[in-house]
Amino acid sequence: MAMTPYFPAHGDDRYGVSHYDLRLVYRVAANRLDGTARLTVSAAEPLGTLDLDFGRLRVAGVTVDGVPARYTHTRDKLRVTPPAPLREAVVEVRYSGKPVPVASPWGGLGWEELSDGALVAGQPIGAPSWFPCNDRPGDKASYRISVTTASPYQVIANGVLVDRRRGAGTTTWVYEQAEPMASYLASVQIGRYQISEQGGARLACPPRLAARVRHDFARQDQMMALFGELFGPYPFAGYTVVVADDDLDIPVEAQGMSIFGRNHVDGVRGCERLVAHELAHQWFGNSLTVACWSDIWLQEGFAAYAEWLWSEASGGPLAGDHAHRWWHRLTLLPQNFILADPGEQALFDDRVYKRGALTLHALRRAMGDEAFFAALRAWTAEHRHGTVTTREFAGHVQRYTPRPVGPLLSAWLHDKPLPHLV
């Protein structure tokens, strides 16, 4: 079985999933999740077994096209043996239990119990904590996510809310995500939230924080307009910001959604750069998703550079000022990693973010603004809702300038020493 370069225990490129139908019931007080997941699966060659990434929840049964199938569930893998070799099928898994985050170098990932609710923080390998999946970023699928929970709670998931049904003390929320989505970007947020509209986006937050949230996110519509001009049209049907009533170490990226902690809202826009960063991920990370985690700079470097572009457009320091400040900071750090292949442990190293942004700024200086931003708009258009690689990006930008950019990109992306910033 071929493995992705990073996280070899996750994902299987022998098959793909085109659609996930997740039907969940969550009891907040007990932190109890009961689920049925239906996966529409196709394989290039007949498969005698199907390996799904799935965490510590208890499996109650598996069917393939409605026929019971044998399975084993050990070491975060659910191995299904279909009644006959599988090419195309709907695989259904019924499961239940208390969700346990997936262990990682960055702590537990995935479904997390809050003080009064729950959230999902899936990047990069947390999805199996709450549903069986093919957990590799390059396997993108459409989703239908149905969550039933106690009626005092609001549920926010990816995509468009298509149905909301009240029962005896519970409410079922149904969301459909039509645009293809990587498993790590699938998300559910549950809390006692006030939901409102502002600047074309939805805001969900604890009622007592509503005034601060409205103020701190008031310029998000201006960011949306700026990024639409620089990067191309916003790629999804809507955008939702969730502010949890808990502190979070960092905001959480999800498709069509960003999740912040109450500590990111201070009423004076002290975290506005993070608002820009998470919004930019809708283009770079969500619509354009890396095929392999080694290319993460194509997501985090672009989102970090978007912070600088927003600063420049909104009256703050110019992107060039940020670039020079961060270049000097990076010269003081070890020059011991390769941006285009930083290694699993360094995926979220600050050098990935800032050296990635510096790479883009150096490319912008070399190409000129007109060619650079034309190349970015074409990049997002040509790969809309798809996957991307560093090699593809290098070939793409070269089409927009007569100047050879290969040496510049090679120095920033593939050499360890930090290049000089011209």
TrEMBL record:
Pfam families per the UniProt record, alphabetical: Peptidase_M1 (PF01433), Peptidase_M1_N (PF17900)
Gene Ontology CC, one term: cytoplasm
EC number of the protein: 3.4.11.2
Keyword Plastid: no
Catalytic activity: Release of an N-terminal amino acid, Xaa-|-Yaa- from a peptide, amide or arylamide. Xaa is preferably Ala, but may be most amino acids including Pro (slow action). When a terminal hydrophobic residue is followed by a prolyl residue, the two may be released as an intact Xaa-Pro dipeptide
Sample GO molecular function, one term: zinc ion binding
Alphabetic keyword roster: Aminopeptidase, Cytoplasm, Hydrolase, Metal-binding, Metalloprotease, Protease, Zinc
Keyword Metal-binding on entry: yes
Binding of Zn(2+), residues: H277, H281, E300
Active-site positions on this chain: E278, Y353
Domain annotation Aminopeptidase N-like N-terminal: ranges: 19-185
Cofactor: Zn(2+)
Cofactor note: Binds 1 zinc ion per subunit.
Start and end residues of each Peptidase M1 membrane alanine aminopeptidase domain: 223-412
One record GO biological process: proteolysis
Compartments, as annotated in UniProt: Cytoplasm
Signal peptide: none
EC class of the enzyme, as a word: hydrolase
Family: Belongs to the peptidase M1 family.
Protein name: Aminopeptidase N
